[in-house]
Amino acid sequence: MSAGTSNVAVPGAVPDVAPRRGGMLAGRGSALAAALIFAALAVLPPIALAIGDPFLVVTATRILVFAIAALSLDLVLGYGAMVSFGHAAFVGLGAYAVAILASHGIDDILVQALAAIGVSALFALVTGAISLRTKGVYFIMITLAFGQMAYFFMVSLSAYGGDDGLTLSARSTLFGLPVLSSDVSLFYVSLAVLASAFLGLRALTLSRFGRVLRGTRENPIRMQAIGFQPFAFQLTAYVIAGALAGLAGVLLANQAEFVSPAYMSWQRSGELIVMVVLGGMGTLVGPIGGAIAFLLLEDWLAHFSEHWKLGLGVLLVLLVLFTRGGIAGGVERLFGRARP
Amino acid sequence: MFNLFLLQALNGVQFGILLFLVAAGLTLIFGIMDMINLAHGVLYMVGAYFAATFTALTGDFLLGLAIALPAALLFGLFLEVLIFRHLYERDHLDQVLATFGLILILNEGVKIVWGAAPMSVPIPEILSGAIPLIGPLQYPFYRVVIIAAGLLTAVGLWLLVNHTRIGMLLRAGAVNAPMVSALGVDIRRLFMLVFGFGAMLAGFAGAMVAPILSVEPGMGDGVLILTFVVIVIGGVGSVRGAFVAAILVGLVDTLGRTFGPIVLRAVMDPSAASQTGRTLAPMLIYILMAAVLFFRPSGLFPAKGSAA
């Protein structure tokens, strides 16, 4: 019985989330899989133009943005074993940084990105420092509550649109040049950010920092016993993930040319978790695949019925109930377990 | 000013009582089975829909309520057998995913069954009207009924938890469920009971607000988050903590929204004060939660004491 091994909110308790590796894109092939995904994405715009479907580029940009957000969540969820249920708040804060600065005439993407990263990192630092004092169900509920706090803040911020959101008059510029004005250039910028984030997180997770984080995931008591402070490492990971999600928000605001509190709603946070778990936690390529699969599935289900969320919900429940060890475990058994 | 304070304080207590009804079952589910259940808010919503439907069918709110309660209980037991009992031994992430899926199903499900348009339930004749407070001040009778019903339920729960054998098992389960199980108690049946009863309490809360709020898809989502705040402040597994925290959250939220702008007006100009107040008021309860957690990471009345 899981209740027996996990004592809520007792300092130094056994982690509530059992370590899980793998997923459909785990292991040795992960670098190869990532290279293939990035290569396929890189040739997408010319193909989309050739087959006369330029809207494909817009959809793909949206997928890239959520892939960045899911990738950042994976650092917290997969490597840190922290079930954070408020990750969409960081994406929203990043998007609002763009919209609010733009409404004051500051259009430069570098300034906006810096502000977005700063705000979301600060929010992650403050809320993370409080949330990480707790464990298990507490941590889930508290991150959820802080996410909702940010959401309600934006809903009641009527100076910047409140519940209705804020429309951007134009996309961001770089040194006064409208470099993001075409959908294709925004796509490639997003792809470059995703690729950089992937490489950066890969280096980070393979570093000493990443090993300590994974060690904490597997056994926090042992890590403490050999002289590490899990709190500092977990908080650092939480802040890095928040900042990266904020950067995803910058791209999201530019892609949609509109921001609203809906970006920060807890359903969005839940969807990000689904993306990470669907693709495979604790593998950096997994969340990218998960984001692609989830958003395509969403589009596909939406074609059938306006009640597509019902189908998504049924699918989620069935996957959890009938695949031992959750979705990742089920997919793992389907595709065989590949360990690094 | 005092009159306004009194009215808003009563509204805050009434809101807190509703939060308590939803939180009471959920805190035991968290406490005893160490399980995270995101789908408790939709049970509140389903309760409201049951009340609306049965009131429309029977033409009488009290009769509708009397049918809605067992219906909510059965619905809770149905979900327990169908889904929840398979989740107890999974990790928290699986529980989050499955109950998140359940929210999507039920929110969309009520849209299909009852339509997306909000439903309204008339306040029953005998519970309408207002009662006088001090001087010319009046308060809607129906809200007094909600407070009274909630307090009665709280007293009933207190008797159940503190003075019955089942209550003893519940308290023991919240402290150390495996030990209770090892001593020969069928903890699964106990939990099924808690789950069904918790679903009924949440449904009761939903049914009681049906006449004063609009019944619509997604109405449980906001309540769920507030319930989490209540449980975190009160301490997981503690019904007493849930009661204190629920009243506290209800009061702080309601009074903050009314008096935040008024208090700020003393230090800044009126338009800025009302703007700032409106923005900050919804955040008050989260700041309260953060403050409580900072000083007491396991809530005000943790069920799992130092012995755990």
Automatic annotation (TrEMBL), chain A:
Location within or outside the cell: Cell membrane
- Residue spans making up a coiled coil are none
Membrane-related topology note: Multi-pass membrane protein
Q: What is any Pfam family matched here?
A: BPD_transp_2
Q: Which keywords does the record carry?
A: Cell membrane, Membrane, Transmembrane, Transmembrane helix
Tell me the domain of life.
Answer: Bacteria
Transmembrane region positions?
30-49, 55-77, 84-103, 109-130, 137-160, 185-204, 225-252, 272-297, 309-331
Any Gene Ontology CC annotation? plasma membrane
Molecular-function GO terms, alphabetical: branched-chain amino acid transmembrane transporter activity
Which PANTHER family does UniProt cross-reference here? ABC TRANSPORTER ATP-BINDING PROTEIN, HIGH-AFFINITY BRANCHED-CHAIN AMINO ACID TRANSPORT SYSTEM PERMEASE
Official protein name in the record: Branched-chain amino acid ABC transporter permease
Q: What organism is the protein native to?
A: Jiella pacifica
UniProtKB/TrEMBL annotation, chain B:
Example GO biological process: amino acid transport
* Record carries keyword Transport: yes
Q: Where in the cell is it found?
A: Cell membrane
What UniProt keywords apply to this chain's record, in alphabetical order? Amino-acid transport, Cell membrane, Membrane, Transmembrane, Transmembrane helix, Transport
Membrane protein topology class: Multi-pass membrane protein
Q: What Gene Ontology terms describe where this protein resides (cellular component)?
A: plasma membrane
Q: Name one Pfam family in it.
A: BPD_transp_2
Instruction: Indicate yes or no for the key word Flavoprotein.
Output: no
Report the transmembrane regions from the record.
Answer: 12-31, 38-57, 63-84, 96-121, 141-161, 190-213, 225-255, 276-295
UniProt record similarity statement: Belongs to the binding-protein-dependent transport system permease family. LivHM subfamily.
Question: What name does UniProt use for this protein?
Answer: Branched-chain amino acid ABC transporter permease
Q: What is the lineage of its organism?
A: Bacteria, Pseudomonadati, Pseudomonadota, Alphaproteobacteria, Hyphomicrobiales
